[in-house]
Amino acid sequence: MKLTLKIWRQKNAQVKGNFETYRMDNVSPEMAFLEMLDSLNKRLVEEDKDPVAFDHDCREGICGSCGMYINGHPHGPVPAITTCHLSMRFFKDGETVWIEPWRAKPFPVIKDLIVDRSAFDKIQIAGGYISVNTGSAPEANNILVPKNVSDEAFNSAICIGCGACVAACKNASAMLFVSARISQFALLPQGRIEAKARVRAMVDKMDEVGFGSCSNTGACEAECPKQIKLTNIARMNREFYKAF
Amino acid sequence: MSKVLFASISKKFVMALAGLFLLTFLPVHLIINLMLLKSDPASFNEAAHFMATFPPVKIFEVVLIASILIHVTYGIYLQISNWLVRPVGYVSGNKSETSFFSRFMIWTGATVLTFLVLHFFNFYFVKLGLVDGDPEDFYSMAHNLFKIPAYNYIYLSCFILLGFHLFHAFSSAFQTLGLNHRIWTPVVKKVALFYAILIPAGFGLISVTLWLFR
Amino acid sequence: MGKLNSKIPEGPLAQKWTSYKASVKLVNPANKKKLEIIVIGTGLSGAGASSALGELGYSVKTFCYQDSPRRAHSVAAQGGINAAKNYQSDGDSIYRLFYDMIKGGDFRAREANVYRAAEVSNQVIDHYTALGVPFARDYGGTLNTRSFGGVQVSRTFYSSGQTGQQCLLGTYSSLNRQIKQGNVKMFPRREMLDLVLIDGKARGIIARNLITGEIERHAAHAVVLATGGYGTIYYLSTLAVNSNASAAWKAHKKGAFFANPSFVQIHPTCVPQLNEFQAKLTLMSESLRNDGRVWVPKTKGDKRPANAIPEEERDYYLERRYPTFGNLVPRDVASRAAKERCDAGYGLGETGLAVNLDFKDAIKKQGKKAIENKYGNLFEMYKNITGIDSYEEPMRIYPAGHYTMGGLWVDYELMTTIPGLYAIGEANFSDHGANRLGASSLMQTSGDGYFILPNTVSNYLSNEIRVPNISTDSPEFAETEKEVVERLKKLISIKGKKTASSFHKRLGKIMWDYCGMIRNEEGLKKALVLIKELKDEFWRDLKVTGEYTELNQELEKAGRVADYFEVTELLVTDALNRKESCGAHFREEYQTPDGEAKRNDEEYAYVAAWEYAGEDNPHILHKEELKFEEVEMKVRSYK
């Protein structure tokens, strides 16, 4: 099939960017979205032009590297998948596809579609851990966790840190990401001991690096490739008030 | 500690609390206003008089005004900060599936605020003695206002937008306060819908009745 | 042979690690702060080692090429992590776990290392649990386990189909704690381009900042490579697209021996290639074979849709060939059997390179709901990729390159043949022999990083406390940096016509065809010629746009592909040298009459450790004889 791509091109963080138009004449519906971009890049290199830079790695939806804003949606119009799993089957012949980087002040563009997501790391460094030294852990089955609690912690823990929640939110808020991490630890008995200090430190860092606030619109939940729930945000709020 | 007080979540917390307080005030106001439908002005004017003079209500009034100020100030402050967090927008727009009314809270809120200013000039400032008028006869003042078609247009559209605002606000406040529950959250959402229809409908009924049928 | 000293402690197998720890030289806490350690890679072993070393008080500098340490490819491991906890009271023990690994590895791994990996496995589970890794639990609140291919006990701990992700996030959190405490300094988006040796010891690295293109020098008292495997030599594999062999290969060229490079595991259940631009083959967890039945049509070239083929015209070839283990034979056996059927013309689809994995019977027996509970996320993933609903028709699968048992040669202390250079996790060769069993990679890589390396480095570093902070101004750093820059410039200056990926793809095809699941002398010799030709063409006709002083993904790829040519030459050489079939290494010439692998224990019960001898000289083979004191070498049979 034939497609028209409108891709954000920006040489580096210092210069202004703009949209470039690329025509693709031979896109197979069996391709994955990133493979379609690979084929564009192959052509660009052969034409001695600068290929489109984008983050990607595992290409199986788990590392969280890839992320593009495609036709009004982070990770494209199909729910619950990452860009690397987005198949070209979901596009129509002759369609125009807009491809933009994540847009948020704490996620500055590095080049083309690559943004700097180190703000996420900073939040986790601030307190996203349980303080236990290697070798000092108790026997695993001494810590009993009810199955439903453990499953719920798992459902929060599957966040891949891709940043789609921030990209989707009209406020560029990172609440879904931060709350997923906080929920995992808050639910498990191992994490309760430091729960207060953790939520304060992480929320403080989240504000400091400059993410917006939450207005409960639910765009994050709708776009999350791992379907992390809004209930995590309510839980984080609760944990935060308890931490006074 | 100061960090905790000024955290984004704390600001939302205060906003939600203030908002919830305002939510409790609306039905009270509506009940009093419904007395406008009576042909005898006495009961309405008595209620208005009671509200203006009974000491506990005076405290309520202070909290109410403070709530409005806090809710509005934080609302505007947070909105501006949130706009600044995305200096470059998306050309392809934002097509994410969201609760529809949540996207326009600042605009529905601003409309309500504009109406509130008008409303203050019409009544509240009269009571305070800042604007000419008889604070003991709000009944006639209200009846006179509802005779003006333009006033009714403004009044009705503002209340429709208030309904939009309330619909998202009601359940959103619970979420912000961390009050989320497997069973109760869906109930809250239903109550929110009921509330968001009932309040504007009640006020609208008064407007339409006084305008067209009296 | 004299060059290899595996430093295995004396004493009975079960006591070796305890007695080693009791006698190892230590570094006092005040001195640890002054000792710097560089760790390359932030998967389970790299991030685990960084955390543990940081907790001990060393000054750690950790590097990864990803934008965040949380994205290292350990994240993609699905099935689980083994440990000898014996929570099920099903007769499991450290010894049994050790024995299963030795047998699964077809008796080509070092006994002492494997035993130790089994020994620390329980501590690994305790640690992850304490870190908040949400392993699956039973209703009583205790940890749950499941069974995995090739073993008879239930010892695999898991978090749904995302065990690697959960373990990695746990490890990432402990790394974060050390970063916050200032013990670890994190350098993301850096690629190690060479190792710096001073007086024969590993003293630092040259890295490229992938954002600015800046070439950086970093010094340390020891360097740890936790850079994973080299399975991307096949181009299409289950590895991350940017996973590469370069760091290990650069270390090899500086003197670290490379062991058993031909031992590469091909995973039997992956989504087959769908188009020519495909960059990756997605793994479908091995656990699917618990309920899925593998079959091909009995008639050659039968192109009817799967559901239209009646039962009697289907060949359930695994059940036919291996009645005891059936669809649950180990990975190498399942992969070869699929290839055998497809090569014989029974494969599915346009390419003929796929077999069916059918859940029809399982759904009939257990109900759709039960299957959905077990594999829902995998079925969904499969549908996303292919558009096929596997509840209605069979999945199509085909083997793909997955894991490299071979790697840098290390001694018992996990040190390579370069003093001060360590290799941990998949980057070393030590624990899986010629074939790895499912769920033992997370176990080994976590053990290496958290529990083994932090105990062994002090033996070396205790002699380094008098070495002051190493300056990066030394001529050795300058010289290595110059070489690195010259190579980058050379790659850019070729200005040919073909992209690095196109060469990679062609190289992958050569490797897959001649040095994949089934190998023979003629094919391997042909591969050597083809690789050489392609390598020459690469250095003549490569095209890299942009400069090395900026973000340049084409240049990154080109550097990695350039190394793959050299890695594959050695891999094929090793495969040619090993004139036997063992584990994943199957030489057509050496098989039993019914087509099973035939080992040659008299001549090949050794680790082949290859020494780099310069650009134009052949590699030198060193043999580490494998002595089995505890176990008896048997024929591995799953019939």
Count of discrete structural domains of chain A:
2
Total number of beta strands of chain B? 0
Helix content of chain B: over 70%
Ends apart, CA distance between termini of chain A: 58 Å
Number of strands of chain A: 7
**CATH secondary-structure class of the largest domain in chain A:** Mainly Alpha
Q: What characterizes the major β-sheet of chain A?
A: 5 strands, mixed
Query: Which structural class do you get from the secondary structure elements of chain A?
Result: alpha+beta
The biggest sheet of chain B, with number of strands, parallel, antiparallel or mixed sense and barrel status, is: none
Largest interface: A-C, 80 and 82 residues
Indicate the proportion of strand residues of chain A. Answer: 5-15%
| The CATH H-level homologous superfamily of the largest domain in chain A | Alpha-helical ferredoxin
Q: Given the C-alpha coordinates, what overall shape of chain A results?
A: elongated
Describe this structure in words.
The complex is a heterotrimer of chains A (244), B (214) and C (639). In chain A, 36% of the residues lie in helices and 11% in strands. Chain A is of the alpha+beta class and 244 residues long. In chain A, helix 2 (118-127) runs antiparallel to helix 7 (195-208). Chain B has 214 residues and is mainly alpha-helical. Chain B has one domain (2-212): Up-down Bundle (3 helical TM bundles of succinate and fumarate reductases), CATH 1.20.1300.10. In chain B, helix 2 (8-34) crosses helix 4 (55-84), helix 5 (105-128) packs across helix 7 (149-176) and helix 7 packs antiparallel against helix 8 (184-212). The radius of gyration of chain B is 19 Å and the shape is globular. Helix content of chain C is 36%, strand content 14%. The radius of gyration of chain C is 24 Å and the shape is globular. Chain C has a five-stranded parallel beta sheet with strand order 5-2-1-9-17, sandwiched between helices. Chain C has helices spanning 16-23, 29-32, 44-56, 94-104, 111-130, 163-181, 246-253, 317-321, 331-343, 360-366, 368-386, 440-461, 475-493, 500-514, 521-541, 553-577, 601-604, and strands at 36-40, 59-63, 81-82, 156-157, 184-187, 190-198, 201-209, 215-219, 222-225, 258-259, 264-270, 293-297, 314-315, 355-358, 395-404, 407-408, 421-423, 606-611, 620-625. Chain C is of the alpha+beta class and 639 residues long. In chain C, helix 3 runs parallel beside helix 6. The chains are: A alpha+beta (244), B mainly alpha (214), C alpha+beta (639). At the A-C interface, helix 1, helix 2 and helix 3 of A face helix 3, helix 5, helix 6, helix 11 and helix 12 of C.
